Amino acid sequence: MQAVKLTAHGDRDVIEYGEVPDPAVDRDEVLVDVKAAALNHLDVWTRRGLPGIDLSFPHVPGSDMAGVVDAVGDDVTRFEPCDRVAFFAATTDSGGEGGDGPPRDDPTLSSDFSIIGEHSQGVHAEYAAVPAANLIPVPEGVDWKVAGSAALVFGTAWRMLIHRAEVQAGEHVLVHGASGGVGHAAVQIADHAGCTVYATGSSAAKLDHAAECGADHVINYEETDFAAAVDDLTDGRGVDVVVDHVGEATYDGSLRSLRKGGRFVTCGATTGGNPDAGLRRIFWNQLSVIGSTMATPEQVAEVLDLVWAGDLEPEIRATLPMSETARAHELIENREGFGKVVVIPDSEL
Question: Are residues 201 and 324 in the same domain?
């Protein structure tokens, strides 16, 4: 079969599209005929080998996809051929409770937690053999590009806001990187939860998209100090919650944007993971710093129900053949556009 493959860690020239062995299906796995897949920033980190990722090459990347069940392992009972499914990538080595039961209640807190596509072979291929426990049914009528691009970013943002930061209606939420995958999902989720949403971005076009997603206030961080803008917009109070996956570049301003007793929730650090801790501000203002990674199966199912219903929707910035995955990486690295980058197996085009 044809698949995206990394030949080594490095720049975009290590990305190829070509023949790889057909996947074998274990007893607790499902073989999925992939109809659409999506990239995430972790695909860039995986390709670069950061932080400390040690892979066997060639490596098939990819942690988002959706498609049609082609075959099932002997122990699988939840799915059968022709079922429509979406995939989420959080897993543990110990798998589920029996052949196709759900993984542990919170696989992200397990000592053997890993991400399919980052730590093991991924799903950017014509076919993918994945644990049945990592699949969610997709209703008829849901577009494949939507189904193949929602699970990771909406699951991550849902866990951050609803389960970790525990946002409440009426609260004020600042979302950084509102043009990216997690960012545009977080804007929609905070708006859906009844919050007043503040979004940062680097251009008028990106901020217009953030407003369309539900942001009440937009701030161009290239032109203004976003923390000062938040101070003005909230009459000096600050926001209740900051959603940050940017890291060093925004950390200090994020703490300055919070009201006393506010919550800073992070799922990544694309500009670096070692800012000054800001401990004096944290203890004096009694701030909570909350880490969040991926989501549980139940949390992914919760938010995908809203996606399937059309209440939340992944924005698609580009759709490319899998053979043009290097260009997809370029779009993400150069922060071109707004939302998700989708790749389709060439045989589906």
Answer: no
